[in-house]
Amino acid sequence: MSMFKISAFAKMSGISIKTLRYYDELGILKPSAVDESSGYRYYSADHLLTVERIRAYKELGLTLEQIAPLLEKATPDTAAGTLVTKRADLERAIQEAQHQLEEIDRRVQRLEQVGAPAGNGPEAVTLQTLQAQWAASVRDTIPRQGLCLLVNEVREYVKANDFGKAAAGPLIVLWYDAGRSGEGEVIDVEVAFPLEEPTPERGRIRVSELPGHEVAASLIHDCNPYAAHCPAAAQVMEWAASQGYEPVPGEPIREIYIAAEQDMIGKVRRSEVFLPLRNIRSR
Question: What is the pLDDT of residues 120-135, one digit of tens each?
Fold first, then answer.
């Protein structure tokens, strides 16, 4: 039987010497003989068939660990079983990839919506009914940059307390400082997460029903909640006054964040601002 040194066999098989040595270590392609004095490995022509089998299995996506048993004492049944398992793995991978593609498409669509003009003219303001909503919230007077701390505080409450009542909607911020129009660094603000029904209060977290309003001016816009001035709030108040309305006394501006956190561009996210109103002529 013809024997070939490792260098010659590497050329014949199209596999590098380094890979042949690695296959030897794994036990999937042992040389026919090893010269004790020189350490040279020798391969036979029969090994070429084994190389082709390894290559074929690798093209199917099998790992070397999965291939090894198929080269030793594999039967048609065991080989078929391995391939069926691999097929199931590929189907799961395809499904996961398809889900990822669909999520990417949804994310791109949402980001395009965030980047699209929000329609900042007066015609973009609409009148809506603001529904009452149970919510877990915390209110504080804080530096504007501390807003994220309030968000985290309420979010951790919702996550940590599994009352079987999932959040019923997106993040809500209630601005008690007339839409952040002041230049001061301290703001009176309340952060709320909607609930399907009341849950026990804890610490600073209060659970209450945000009141509904028959009439509220609404405007969808791109919001930076850390900015000192909110053009959308000012626009809504100006529009309301021009239409014979005034803000309901004591009621904060309510801002509902439409875009999820993963869709934020820097500090900006798409939101809808609501200003509860009453008709001036009805007083």
Answer: 444 489 999 999 999 9
| CATH tag, 3-74 | 1.10.1660.10
Cα torsion 240, 243, 247, 252: sign: negative
Residue ranges of the domains in the chain? 3-74, 83-116, 122-282
Residue 140, both tokens: 């504080």
| Residue 72 dihedral angles phi and psi, to the nearest 5° | -95, -80
For the whole prediction, is pTM greater than 0.85? no
**CATH class of the domain whose range is 122-282:** alpha beta
What is the CA angle 182-155-266, rounded to 5? Answer: 55
Determine the Cα–Cα distance for residues 129 and 211; give it in Å rounded to an integer.
11
